[in-house]
Amino acid sequence: MAISSAQRQLATGAAFFGAGCIAQLLSVAAWAPALKAHMVWLPGATLLCGLLLLPRARWPACLIGSLLGVLAVSMFRISAWDVLVTVGGDYLLVAATAAVLLRYRDGQRLMESFADIGRFILFACLLLPATSAWWVTTLARRNELNPYIGDWLNVALAHSLGYVLVVPAVVGIVSAAKQPERRNPASTASFVAVVLLAGLLWLTWSFPWDDIIVKRLLILAPIPFLVWALASFGIAGASVAMLLVAFLCMRMSVNGFGPFAAPDLAETILSAQFWAIGTAISLLFLAVLAEQRTTSRLMLKRAYQRLSKVTGRMLVVQEEERTRIARDLHDDINQSLAAVSIQLSAIKRELGQAQRESIDEIQEQLMSISKDIRDISHELHPSILRFTGLASAIEGLCEKHNASGELRLHCSTRNLPPLSEAQELGLFRIVQEAVNNIDKHAHASLARILLEGDRDGVSLTIEDNGIGYAPEIKHAPPPSLGLISMEERAKALGGNFDIARGPTGGTRVEVRFRAGAQPHGAD
C-alpha cells in the first residue's frame, strides 16, 4: 500500500516529537547539580541529524515535531511561549547550518573527507553553538529561562558537545546501514570487550588517586578504548564509544571523581567539556583516515571483482573462439586436404611408375599435414572431454607426452564428483598449461598429476622434479602468461591457486575448489 506525502510528514513529525522529548530529558538528566551548569544539550543535535539525513521536503515536520517534543518536557516549569521563541530561534540556526553542510559536502556520504570534517567543526561545533548561545542567553535575561541558563561559554560548550558527540555517531550508523560492505560484523566478543573496557575505565577513574600527576594522566585512559572502537567499527563505533566515554566523564566529574574533578563545580564542568570536545574532534580526524582507508580497500575490491568478471568472460570467449578455429581446421581444411589426396589418387592411375612414386610422396606429406592439423584441432578443443570425460582426457594427454617427449608424466584421478562441462574444461586447461610450462622451463624428467575429490571439494596437484620455483627471490622475473592463465582459470572455477617449491625440490602447483561452486563467467 502506497504511503502518501501527508502520512510521511506525519510519521516524521511524530518520530521527531519522540526524539525531542528523549533528547531534552537526557539533557536534563545530564545537568549538573547547579541550575546554571549545563553539561550537554541534545535536542539541537538530534534535529541536525534528521536534517542531514532526510529530504528537505520533510524538514518542516522535523522542526515542528522536535520543537513540540522539547516544549512537552519543559512547559511544566517554563512558559510555553518562552520555550517556543528560544528553542525555535535556535532550531532555525540548526536548519541554516544543515543547509550549508549539505551544500558544500564533498561526496555522497557525509563526513567522508577532511574538508567535510573541517566544515562540520567550523559550522556545527563552533559557529552554530556560538550564535545559539548568544540567542539563548540574550533571551534568557528577559524570560523565565533565566534561572536555568548559565553564561554564554557554558551554553556554547553544552551545545557544541551535543553536536560533536551525537551527529557523527548517528550519521556513521546510518551510512554503515546503507552500505553493508563498510560494516564490520559485530560479535559477542566485541560486545564483551566493550563492556570490559568501559568497566575498566570506570574503575580507573573512580579510584581515589592521591598523586596529582597520576590523576592528570587519567585523561589518557580512554584513548585505547576509543582507538579500538575506531579500528573495529569505523567512525560509527568510534563516535558511539566517544559518546559513552563523554557521559561517563561528565557524570563522574560532577560527583567528584576522575581527572577533571575540582573543588569548583564550574571549573570541573568546563574542564570536562573542553576535554570531551577536543578528544571528539581529534577522533573525527582519525576516523576520516580510517574511512578513507576503508574506501580505498572497497574500491580495490570492487575493481578486482570487475576484473575477475571480465577475465572469466574472456576465458569463455577464448574457448568459444578456440572451438570455432578447431572446427574450421578439422571440418574445412582437413576435408580440403582429403579432397586433394583423392584427386591425386585419380591422377596417379593415369601416370607411369616414376610419377606415381612422386605423387605417393606428396600424399604422405598431405597425410602428415592432416595429422598435424588434427592434433592442433584437438589441442584447441579437446573433444574427448565431451565424449569420455575429464579423467580420460588427462590420461590421453599423459600418454601423448610419454610417447613423444622426454618428460614422463604419471597421471592419477580418483573419487571425482560430477563436474560441469565448464569445470572439466577449466581443469584440463590448467593441466595442459602446467605440462607445457614443465616442458619448456622446468628441465624436469618426471611430473606427477593427481586429480581427486573429497568432502571439501576437488583438488588438482601437479609436481615435477625440475629446477624449482623461487618467487621469494628479489628481482625475479614477473609471472609468465601461462601462470597468469592458470591462476585466472582457478579463480574462474571459484577456487584457490597456489604455486611453490615442492617438498623434494621442483615445483608444486595446487588448485582447490568446491565441486558445487558456479564457475565465474559461465553463461
TrEMBL record:
Chief place where the protein resides: membrane
Domain Histidine kinase positions: 328-517
Catalytic activity: ATP + protein L-histidine = ADP + protein N-phospho-L-histidine
Highest taxon of the lineage: Bacteria
Pfam families assigned: HATPase_c, HisKA_3, MASE1
Coiled coil: 337-379
InterPro entries hit by this protein: HATPase_C_sf, HATPase_dom, His_kinase_dom, MASE1, Sensor_HK_TwoCompSys, Sig_transdc_His_kin_sub3_dim/P
EC number: 2.7.13.3
Keywords in alphabetical order: ATP-binding, Cell membrane, Coiled coil, Kinase, Membrane, Nucleotide-binding, Phosphoprotein, Transferase, Transmembrane, Transmembrane helix, Two-component regulatory system
Listed transmembrane segments: 12-32, 38-54, 61-78, 84-104, 116-136, 156-174, 186-205, 225-248, 269-290
Membrane topology label: Multi-pass membrane protein
Compartments reported by the entry: Cell membrane
UniProt-recorded Gene Ontology molecular function terms: kinase activity
Protein name: histidine kinase
